[in-house]
Q: What sequence folds into this?
């Protein structure tokens, strides 16, 4: 069989599709992880900037306490100092803060004219139950009215270093810091996605070349197997009927019936192999029996029937052909158990062999041989009907007879080369799937 598999396009299409899916999946997962990591980092930085202010408050508070100020006054003084200081990073400012102790007394700090002051005061009220110990702190990034803020609760030590009070405040990020909270994770995720896309694009030609080489080897191997199968089928046809037409037609009939039954591509492959090789065992039958023009004697018929065992012996030596054993071994079995060699009945006969038996007899009756003429279509159908339930699977026969008129009209007028072309199209369709599996 000539090479007709569009291997390069097949590899390109399959590989491109799979790599694209893989790259998109990887980009989504890795990009998502980078976004979350970037957001965490940006939030961590915002919290650190809020803590910078708290550190100033703590230091000033401690100093004021040391100078003998009451805690509330010390806090007020510390806030004043902090608010007048200039920080290197203009990352935001407190919208509201309170200073409170166990008794609940507190001092509230209201910076002038902050648009989020009222909402920040409510948030601080909600956080009153959060009371971290010395060395701890609570800090969360929370949006208030759509604007990102850092809500902090930190402990304040008294003059003896023990826990004396807490500061709870809402630090509102500046517009620049707020946009960095979005921009930085997006840049990080975009960078990762870009690296994945670039890596995929760079690797693609390398993988494509390797995959094409591998697929090419596999295609050569498949082609060699198909050629050897056709050579064997042709060899026995030359001895038996001097034409390959029967092999081609019977295979096409069988595949069309299997398609009608909705069977798998693997089954089609089995039918194609079995179609070529079902009678390969006849190579082991003596000419005086194989080519005898008249009716065989019982002894001669017994010898003729051994072509099934010869066929199993020949085909069984190839792992690639092993699925065809079902047809080679089962194509003379009958539905009522009256066939040979196993006398298997009904569903114990593989479905491929049951399909093939119908196709084989249908074509044999319609073919002229040295010892007989071809029968007209109506007579062929009548003989098949006589074998319903005894020779043939009745359900499969019913199904076949619905497509038989069209198939008979389509194939009977065709020359051997035209039949060969038609079968090559079928073979290409069903064995392409085998090539695609190489790329999995
Ligand atoms: Fe046979």
A:
């Amino acid at each position: 069989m000539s090479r007709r598999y569009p291997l390069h396009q097949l590899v390109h299409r399959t590989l491109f599709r799979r790599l694209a899916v893989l790259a998109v999946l990887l980009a989504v997962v890795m990009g998502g992880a980078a976004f979350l990591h970037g957001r965490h980092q940006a939030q961590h930085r915002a919290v650190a900037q809020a803590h910078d202010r708290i550190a100033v408050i703590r230091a000033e508070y401690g100093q004021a306490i040391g100078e003998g100020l009451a805690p509330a006054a010390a806090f007020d003084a510390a806030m004043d100092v902090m608010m007048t200081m200039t920080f290197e990073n203009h990352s935001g400012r407190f919208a509201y803060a309170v200073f409170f102790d166990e008794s609940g007394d507190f001092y509230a700090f209201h910076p002038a004219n902050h648009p989020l002051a009222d909402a920040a005061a409510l948030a601080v009220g909600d956080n009153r139950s959060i009371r971290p110990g010395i060395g701890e702190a609570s800090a969360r990034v929370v949006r208030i009215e759509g604007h990102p803020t850092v809500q902090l609760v930190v402990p304040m030590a008294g003059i003896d270093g023990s826990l004396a009070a807490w500061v709870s405040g809402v630090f509102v990020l500046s517009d620049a810091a707020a946009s960095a909270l979005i921009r930085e994770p997006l840049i990080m995720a975009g960078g990762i996605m870009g690296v994945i896309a670039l890596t995929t694009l760079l690797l693609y030609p390398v993988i494509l070349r390797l995959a094409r080489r591998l697929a090419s080897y596999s295609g050569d191997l498949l082609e060699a197997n198909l050629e050897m199968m056709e050579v064997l089928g042709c060899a026995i046809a030359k001895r038996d009927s001097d034409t390959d037409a029967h092999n081609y037609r019977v295979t096409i009939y069988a595949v069309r019936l299997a398609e009608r039954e909705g069977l798998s591509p693997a089954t089609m492959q089995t039918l194609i192999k079995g179609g070529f090789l079902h009678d390969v065992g006849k190579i082991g039958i003596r000419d005086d029996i194989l080519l005898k023009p008249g009716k065989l004697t019982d002894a001669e018929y017994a010898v003729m029937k051994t072509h099934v065992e010869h066929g199993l012996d020949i085909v069984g030596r190839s792992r690639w052909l092993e699925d065809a054993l079902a047809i080679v071994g089962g194509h003379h079995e009958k539905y009522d158990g009256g066939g040979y060699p196993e006398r298997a009945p009904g569903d114990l006969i593989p479905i491929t062999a049951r399909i093939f038996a119908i196709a084989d007899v249908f074509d044999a009756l319609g073919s002229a041989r040295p010892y007989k003429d071809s029968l007209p279509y109506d007579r062929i159908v009548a003989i098949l009907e006589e074998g319903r339930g005894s020779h043939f699977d009745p359900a499969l026969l019913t199904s076949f007879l619905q497509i038989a008129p069209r198939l008979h009209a389509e194939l009977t007028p065709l020359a051997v080369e035209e039949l060969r072309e038609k079968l090559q199209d079928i073979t290409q369709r069903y064995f392409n799937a085998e090539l695609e599996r190489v790329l999995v």
